[in-house]
Amino acid sequence: MKAALVVALMLISTPAFMRAAHAQDVQAGEDIFDGMCHGCHLHAKNKNYLAPSLCGVVGRHSASVPGFNYSDANRKSGITWTENVLFKYLKNPHLVVPNTKMSFDGLPDEKMRRDVIAYLKTLHD
C-alpha cells in the first residue's frame, strides 16, 4: 500500500515539477522588454513609436494597429500573433517575415522569449 501511495505521489508531483522548469517570469519579461524592445515599441494602447504598439499583440493579426505604416511583408504575412508564432518570431524575425522592417536580429534564449511573451500577454487592449 505504501509503495502505491509513493508512486501516486510521484506521478502527481512530476508534472508540477516539469511545469516549474518551464515557468514564465512576467517580471523578467518586462525587464527584457524595457531593455530590448522599448526603444522602438510602446506598450500603451494605440501609441505607436518607431514600431507599432504591442498592447494586445497576443492573438492580434499582423499589421492591424491603426496609424502604423507597416512593411508590405507584414501586411501580406497573414500572421496571427499566437504564442507559438511569437516564440518563433522573437528567435529570428527575418525568418518568419522576410523583408520585415524590424531591425531586431532576434532573441536566441528560449527562456527569455517565453518571459517576454508572458509579459506581452499582460498587455491588454
Overview of the structural elements:
- By secondary structure, the protein is mainly alpha-helical.
- 49% of the residues lie in helices and 0% in strands.
- It is built from six helices and no strands.
- The longest helix is centred in the first third of the chain and has 20 residues.
- The protein is globular.
- The N terminus is likely disordered.
Keywords:
single chain, 125 residues, mainly alpha, Cytochrome Bc1 Complex, Chain D, domain 2, 6 helices, 0% strand
Brief overview:
With 125 residues, the chain is mostly helical.
Topology overview:
Elements: H1 2-21, H2 26-37, H3 72-76, H4 83-91, H5 93-96, H6 110-120
Helix content: 40-55%
Number of domains: 1
Distance between the termini: 53 Å
CATH topology: Cytochrome Bc1 Complex, Chain D, domain 2
* CATH fourth-tier homologous superfamily: Cytochrome c-like domain
**CATH architecture assignment name:** Orthogonal Bundle
Q: So what's the CATH class?
A: Mainly Alpha
Low-confidence stretches: 1-22
Order of helices and strands: HHHHHH
Question: What structural class should be given to the helix and strand makeup?
Answer: mainly alpha
Strand segment tally: 0
